[in-house]
Specification:
Length: 220
């Protein structure tokens, strides 16, 4: 087991540090994918990662996404337009006809209770949203996001998110930007200051099709 800890200023900094470090053979491993996306191909993966992001939210949503220098001539992992479409997937219960679940369909029903709990007893350790369900093991594509936890220190709301598996190149930026918007919403609703975000995963990975893009972005 090779746990990795990353401390970042903001979401863009966290993403870049993760991409840079996952290319280090001393910090990651190469696995052949046996189930899920891209079966049979290899992916690079951290055994376990913890990230502390000091300032996850930016009023300019675009600035929370990876910034790619134009001279590299590679596509951005996530666009602003995609983020705007993705936020409702996290924050509302709306589902398309073909969707068995969305993150929002599991998050939104719990939100009134969580907001009330934080308002009444801000120092509670019970302010946790469960995104996973016991029946998820029956799904071909169970949720990657498992829990969202809140902790109030003084008058500041901090948030912890945990992912069972996590696509670093394009999944992580969209996930964290939407969750940062969600965190800011909860902070406003509870009258608290918006604080840091802690994220953990036992499966943060880089798919094969992204390996060269990652090397170009980091100069490795």
């Amino acid at each position: 087991m090779k746990p990795v800890y990353i401390e970042a200023i903001d979401l863009n900094d966290f993403w870049f540090q993760c991409v840079y470090n996952i290319l280090d053979k001393n910090l990651s491993r190469v696995y052949q994918i046996e189930q899920g996306s891209f079966v049979g191909e290899n992916r690079i993966e951290f055994d376990f990662i913890t990230g502390l992001i000091k300032n996850p939210y930016n009023v300019d949503w675009n600035q929370m996404l990876p910034q790619i220098p134009s001279h590299l001539n590679i596509p951005a992992p996530v666009t602003y337009d995609y983020l705007c479409q993705y936020v409702p997937y996290v924050m509302t219960s709306h589902k398309q006809e073909h969707e068995f679940y969305t993150y929002g369909s599991r998050i939104e029903p719990q939100l009134p209770f969580i907001i009330g709990l934080l308002q009444k007893t801000p120092r509670t350790n019970q302010a946790v949203i469960q995104v996973a369900s016991p029946q998820d093991h029956l799904l071909d594509d169970p949720p990657c996001l498992r829990t969202i936890g809140f902790k109030v220190i003084d008058t500041t709301l901090h948030m912890h998110v945990d992912f069972r598996s996590w696509d670093l190149w394009s999944g992580t930026p969209a996930n964290l930007a939407a969750l940062a918007i969600f965190q800011n919403y909860v902070a406003d609703a509870t009258g608290l200051k918006n604080g840091s975000m802690i994220c953990t995963s036992k499966g943060l990975h880089l798919y094969k099709y992204c390996h060269e893009l990652a090397r170009l972005r980091t100069g490795k």
